[in-house]
Structures are given as C-alpha cells and as structure tokens.
C-alpha cells in the first residue's frame, strides 16, 4: 500500500528565511510519481512539481527546489528566501500506474511566513 | 489550454436535502476525473474517480454517488445530506498530452450542511 508522511504539521518563519518541508513515502512499486501541491487560503490546489521514480535529479525553479532521494524514500521541498505569499498548506503526494494514478496525499504542512 | 470549472463555489444546505455538484473540463478529451473531499483542517480524501464515460470507481462507502454523463463532465450527488458531508469538495482531471499521472484541480466547492 502507498503511504505519504509529512511529519511537520506547521512551520512558521520570518520573511527571507529558508524553509524545508519534509516528505517520506512508502510504495512497493518500482514505477511511481511524486508531487508537491500548494493550497493557498483560497483553497484551490496548485500543482508545483512532478517527479518520476527514475529521475533522481534535483530541480530548482526560482526560489523553489526539490531534493529527491530514493535511498531514503524522501522528496523534500525547500523555499529559499521565503515571502508572505508563500504562506499556504503544502501537500506531498504519490501515485502509480497500478492504481490508476490515484493520488495518495500526505497530511499537509502549513507554512506561515511573517513579515 | 485546459481549464477546469466547478460550481457552485459555495453551498449551504440543510440536513436531509439533496446535493448536486458539477465539474467540467475544457481543452482536453477523455480525461481521468476525480472527486476529493477535504474536511476542515484535514487532508484530502479521494471519493470517486472515472477513467471514461459511465465508468465510476468508489473509494469510500458513503451516501454520496458520482456520475459521468459526458466525457468532460463529472457530477457528485447525494439524495440526503448528512452533517458529516460538510467540507471542501475538489474536482481534478488527469490525462491529455502530459500523461494521466498529473492531476490538476478545480477551484473547489465549499459545502456546509446545517
């Protein structure tokens, strides 16, 4: 069975600090996909990134970066120089073709960036 | 480009009343479609998903049902709402040129059952 764990419930930082969100996953499949979504106060889930299990390259997109480590089953997300607009709930998720690409979500981490 | 619509945006219904939430997708064909519910302060729970017209898979037994009368239309219904049905309902689609594995979410419907 698939499982995604986001151990951090809430993180509060001051603007311009870096913040790292942890995500640990469990799956028996060799082919799978990992995701991060952002849920701002408006409620809509915004897709941030997808990684497949065969691509362990880290990725950077502006102030966002992702560290995928298959050896530790982790897919961590770092926001560099945080801004107030980064305040949101962030979800890590996992899917695989065997399960019709259904997403298994973590419980989410609430990030609050204070001015 | 693809867009996903949900309506209504908010809804307040009495216990025991019926429910119909609608989701439509534009700009793609034969998408996978999903209904999720998010209770207040909680994570996302997959309720139903569909890989084609008339094909519905239920993830959680409850008093809700789903239907897909057209390729890009997904409807969530209930004959009699319960207090526990309150929550934020999100529709998502996956598929198209990017493959079925990435899901894109609609703006959601906030349902309050009184």
Overview of this structure, please?
The complex is a heterodimer of chains A (115) and B (114). Chain A is an all-beta fold and 115 residues long. Chain A contains no helices and 12 strands. Helices cover 0% and strands 51% of the residues of chain A. In chain A, the strands form 3 sheets. In chain A, strands 2, 5, 6, 10, 11 and 12 form a 6-stranded mixed β-sheet that branches. Chain A has a 4-stranded antiparallel β-sheet with strand order 3-9-8-7, with no helix packed on it. In chain A, strands 1-4 form a two-stranded antiparallel sheet. Chain A starts with a strand and ends with a strand. Chain B is mainly β and 114 residues long. Helix content of chain B is 0%, strand content 58%. Chain B contains no helices and 11 strands. Chain B has strands at 3-7, 10-13, 19-26, 32-38, 44-52, 55-58, 64-70, 73-78, 87-94, 103-105, 109-113. Chain A binds chain B through residues 33, 35, 37, 42-47, 50, 52, 91, 95, 97, 100-103, 105-108, and chain B through 32, 34, 42-44, 46, 49, 51, 57, 59, 88, 90, 92, 94, 100-108, 110.
């Amino acid at each position: 069975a698939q499982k995604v764990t986001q151990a951090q419930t809430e993180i509060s930082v001051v603007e311009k600090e870096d913040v790292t969100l942890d995500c640990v996953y469990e799956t028996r499949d060799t082919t799978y996909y990992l995701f991060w979504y952002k849920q701002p106060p408006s409620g809509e889930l915004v897709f941030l990134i997808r990684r497949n299990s065969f691509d362990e390259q880290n990725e950077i997109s502006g102030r966002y970066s992702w560290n995928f480590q298959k050896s530790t089953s982790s897919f961590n997300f770092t926001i560099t120089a945080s801004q107030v607009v980064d305040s949101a709930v962030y979800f890590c998720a996992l899917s695989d073709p065997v399960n019709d690409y259904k997403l298994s979500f973590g419980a989410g981490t609430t990030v609050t960036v204070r001015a | 480009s693809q867009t996903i619509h949900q309506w209504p945006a908010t809804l307040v219904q009495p216990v025991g009343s019926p429910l119909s939430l609608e989701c439509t997708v534009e700009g793609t064909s034969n998408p996978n479609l999903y209904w999720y519910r998010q209770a207040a302060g909680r994570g996302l729970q997959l309720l139903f998903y569909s890989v084609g017209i008339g094909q519905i898979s239920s993830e959680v037994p409850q008093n809700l049902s789903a239907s897909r009368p057209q390729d890009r239309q997904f409807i969530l219904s209930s004959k009699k709402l319960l207090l526990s049905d309150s929550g934020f309902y999100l529709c998502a689609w996956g598929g198209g040129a990017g493959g079925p594995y990435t899901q894109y979410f609609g703006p959601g419907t906030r349902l309050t059952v009184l």
